[in-house]
Amino acid sequence: MTPAVTSLAALAVAIVLSCTSRINVGVLAVAFAWVIGVYHGGMKPEAVIAGFPVTLFVMLAGVTLLFAMAEGNGTLARVTQRVVRITGGDRRVLPIVFFGLACLISAVGPGAISAVALLAPLAMPLGVQAGVPRFLTALMVANGANAGNLSPVSAVGVIANAKMTDAGLGGNEMIVFAANFGAHLIVGSFAYLLFRGKNGEQRDVGGRAGKGFNNGEQRDVGGHGGTGAGTASADQDTTLERGHLLTLAVIAFWILAVVFLKVNVGLGAFGAAALLAALRAADETAAIKRMPWDVIVMVCGITVLIGVLEKSGGMDLFASALAALATPESINGSIAFITGLISTWSSTSGVVLPAFLPTVPALVANVGGGDPLAVALSINVGSALVDVSPLSTLGALCIATVSDEAESRRLFRQLMIWSLSMAVVGAVLAQLFAGVLARG
Fold this sequence. Notes:
Elements: H1 3-20, H2 25-40, H3 45-49, H4 54-72, H5 75-86, H6 94-107, H7 112-130, H8 134-147, H9 155-166, H10 173-195, E1 202-203, E2 209-210, H11 228-234, H12 242-260, H13 265-278, H14 284-290, H15 293-312, H16 314-323, H17 331-345, H18 348-356, H19 360-367, H20 372-385, H21 393-399, H22 405-439
Antiparallel strand pairs: 1-2
Helix pairs in contact: 1-2, 1-15, 1-16, 1-17, 2-15, 4-9, 4-13, 4-14, 5-6, 5-7, 6-7, 6-8, 7-8, 7-11, 7-21, 8-10, 10-20, 12-13, 15-18, 16-19, 17-20, 17-22, 18-20, 20-22
């Protein structure tokens, strides 16, 4: 086989393993890049190493460090609890608050995984207490977090925009954010109208009525009567002390500096983290241990393999194969559906975006037409809408809050059906609106 075919096969193996095993495919991808690039493609080791995304690594490490410090000192948790308390436990308002709060937390830096990890343990039991179906709470938290996931300063937004820049589509940060936010707002609004029920009535994913919670009856996270874990979470201290206020001030200054002063996202985040450490507002040593190193390694490793793929001609071969499945008229919907199916089991930020976004120019050329920006937006939206899957981190975090085995299995089934349906919904939305947004 030629190096192009071998490198493409290696990428396919990496994607399959990301769906079927717990191995960090970033590690595997670097090994593939080394063996294929040096011993089959005749490249020098330095040429393979040159594919390591230094700029992206600095951005990811800086952003995740800053928010690991904010999470570690309790700032994010206390702000979240304060906002939730404002609703007074109104079941009509809570799902909207969950969506908005998850979106805000995700958008300002940590990304969807951190936002859901922070909010789900509080939102799921609070929703049960207020009579909100677990399924709806999970959808609002996950879709809200994903709605803010591609902001210009979020960790995943950094990945998407960096890969789009590599593909010659830089400078579209706000369009990327708006397209992703709009898609999740549409889906979240539909879920709210469909599953909120009436008079406390709960409905499952098939629309069948289930047991509701009436008259303000209190139930714990497992659905049992009593105060339980949900009440304990709601009663936690929300006082903002010196360290929390300093953290909020530093993060706010960092966001303003990035947006208005064009400060480098990653370097600015490291500066903000260093300032928090110097002020003794957070523990940087503990925060470094909390950073999602597995995701960082995954993203950077896949990027190294894609570098070999490009140099060996495998990227052109990959684009040609994708092009065979689409026409200039259907390319947006087709690519959204394909990436959506893969993302149901695989990592959106670690595998799908780094693997597919660099193919956009070649894909459009091979299909014979299409708007490259529209295709990139379709990849972003199609791969993200399915992330409520229980096989993904967001869905799993929501299910992990449910201690009752029967309810846990029920929520798993609901999220699985919903996520698979989102592959179709994402394709439809991309086909209808991606071109309009790109032209606008």
